[in-house]
Amino acid sequence: KAGVTQTPRYLIKTRGQQVTLSCSPISGHRSVSWYQQTPGQGLQFLFEYFSETQRNKGNFPGRFSGRQFSNSRSEMNVSTLELGDSALYLCASSLAGQTSYEQYFGPGTRLTVT
Amino acid sequence: KNEVEQSPQNLTAQEGEFITINCSYSVGISALHWLQQHPGGGIVSLFMLSSGKKKHGRLIATINIQEKHSSLHITASHPRDSAVYICAVTGNQFYFGTGTSLTVIP
Q1: pLDDT tens-digit profile of B39-75?
Q2: In terms of Cα–Cα distance, which of B61, B57, B58 is closest to B35?
Q3: For A6, which residue in chain B has the nearest alpha carbon?
Q4: Is there a contact between B94 and A101 if contact means CB atoms under 8 Å apart?
């Protein structure tokens, strides 16, 4: 089975722009979660999607949004980028949800905001 | 206030040593996860547990729900175990510890 894939792997954007990141889960997995990792804050939970519905959300501003499609693929969008949004963005998929099932992580998208 | 605390932050061991990493949490949880992250960013889930003890090869994870504490043990450590180990708990969302950076010297 193919693992979790994320595209693009690297991205450079300018402050004020917006960005869309994509995550394709393992086949059969219905839950996708997104995380931000920075040297200062470590790993932080952004949100979780299950069957096209956002099920849980972390403490991030409304500039961070996401969606999930019927094939379980997910995208996250960050609008009006700030320098502090520079981070490694990870997604993880699981069979049915982060609270009860093992998470499988993708390689991440490294976003640099200049 | 950190919902998940890990100790130690950094750990250096000689090859073959027995290693313990500790994790304490303050929130109600449905599961606790131990994750491994190698340089370059990739994260691998080592264990997910809600009670008792699990073993996989040289790795053992335990959890005490009453004391809100978990430990990750590595027996007969090897240089390839060098990585950052992260404790995370799931309740209504995912809370992460700051990680323990382990270096195993040959």
Answers
A1: 877 899 999 999 999 999 999 999 999 999 999 999 9
A2: B61
A3: B42
A4: no
